[in-house]
Structure formats: C-alpha cells, structure tokens
C-alpha cells in the first residue's frame, strides 16, 4: 500500500487491474444475459439501452461476452506467468549455484536457444502441433485452457531464468551466504530461503509486465483459432469473430474487446513501472 500511495502510476495500474478482476469474478452474479445465448432476431444490433455494447453476428450480447471473456483472458495470462516464474526462477537459481560447472553452461545455453525465437512464434508452433481440445496426461485430463497455460507458460521461462540467474549470481557473493554455508545450510535452503527473498522485488516487477504479454499472446492465439475455443468467450476470439466486419460499420464488435485488452495490458505495465 505504501508503494501505491507513493506512486500514482502504480496506483492507476492497480486500479485498472482491480476493476478488470472484479468484473471477471462477479460475472456469474451480474445481471447479464448468457454470453453464449444466440438470437437470430438480434444480430448486429448497435450499442443501446438494451445492449450496452451491442450484439454480434449470432445475436449474443457483446457486454456479457466481454466481461465473461475477462475470466478466460486474465486467468490464462496469470497462469502462464505463474508456470513461467516457477520454471524460470528454479532454473536461474540452480544455474547460479552451479556457476562454473557444466550444468550452468548447459542451462544457460538452453535459455539462449529458447530466447532466440519470440515467445509468440514458439507458442503458435507448439500449440499448432499439439492441437486444441482436451488432452489426457495419464489419469489427468487437461482441458484446452489448462493445456494452453501449461504449454505457453513453459515457453516463458527463458527471460525469467536469465534475470534470476544474474540477480542470484550477485547475491551468492554476499557474506551472509558464506555464513549460512558455515552453519551447515544446504543449497536449497540458501537459494529459496535466503537468496530468493532478496531478489524477489525485481522478479515481481518483471512478472507484472509478463502478465500483460501473456494476455496478448492468449488473444493472438485465439485470434488465429489456436486459443480458447467457441463457445467460451475470450477477448482474442471476439476479435477473430469481428475481423470480417471491421470495415462494414459494426465497430462495436472489435472496439470493446480491443479496449479490454488495452486496459488490462496497460494496467499491468503501469503497475510494473510504478513498482
């Protein structure tokens, strides 16, 4: 809270994120029509008192789909970063602890290989190969959204691992680390109990920015048909549905999901800048 009071930029970002999150959480209890309910008699209605954001080609309420789409887009964006942080932080800490060894060399070369190609290109290639729909991993069945989070989250690890590696290398030279080793503390205890808390602040800043990138990647995958599948709404799939009407006058179909993506990404970036 002290940071938010001191930084208007961070406060504005947090306000945007909070507004989006509240709408997503309250979607089931808000007085909205079903986001999947169709009505052939109500197709392409412009914004009005009955439909604040208008309706789409199937007569579905765009406001309802935008708010329900926040649940998909924000959940996937956050999930991607959580997976990427877990993998990247662990690998970065381990590589820093193993400085000067073959493991460090192999780990950082792996990071370089994955970082050489943009995440979106990796994501399109991997999701395109694996395909959409549910996938069984032994007794566990992953639905399409969970699979998307897992696959894209794994691809987020290089940048996080590189930052963690650099921060941890510097931290491991501190005298308190030597003192902990003399006390008999193991590597895992030192890395996760002492080093990680001291490098967490810049990692959280990076994570807040990456959530915005995760939302954009989800929207991009949904736009090309590799993300959230119909009839589940997401901002990217709504933009994909509206691409045929951009120049025919139905501006509301792309305007509102586009503004939602813009506001959420700006919110996370402002929060990261303010922190």
Your description of this structure?
With 275 residues, the protein is mostly helical. The protein has eleven helices and two strands; from the N terminus they run αααααββαααααα. A hairpin with a 2-residue loop joins β1 (135-137) and β2. α3 packs across α7 and α5 runs antiparallel to α6 (144-155). It is elongated and about 75 Å long. The termini are close together.
Structure, briefly:
The protein is mainly alpha-helical. The protein has eleven helices and two strands, in the order αααααββαααααα.
Could you outline the blueprint of secondary structure elements for this entry?
Layout lengths: L1 H5 L1 H19 L35 H36 L4 H14 L3 H12 L4 E3 L2 E3 L1 H12 L1 H15 L3 H8 L4 H37 L11 H8 L9 H23 L1
Antiparallel strand pairs: 1-2
Helix pairs in contact: 2-3, 2-11, 3-4, 3-6, 3-7, 3-9, 3-11, 4-7, 5-6, 7-9, 9-10, 9-11, 10-11
Q: What integer value in Å does the Rg equal?
A: 22 Å
Describe the global form.
Answer: elongated
Helix percentage range: 55-70%
Record the strand order, biggest sheet: 1-2
Strand portion: under 5%
Specify the structural class: mainly alpha
| Weakly predicted, low-confidence segments | none
Major beta sheet summary: 2 strands, antiparallel
Q: What oligomerization state is this entry in?
A: single chain
Order of helices and strands: HHHHHEEHHHHHH
How many E-type strands?
Answer: 2
Through-space gap between termini: 11 Å
Alpha plus pi helix count: 11
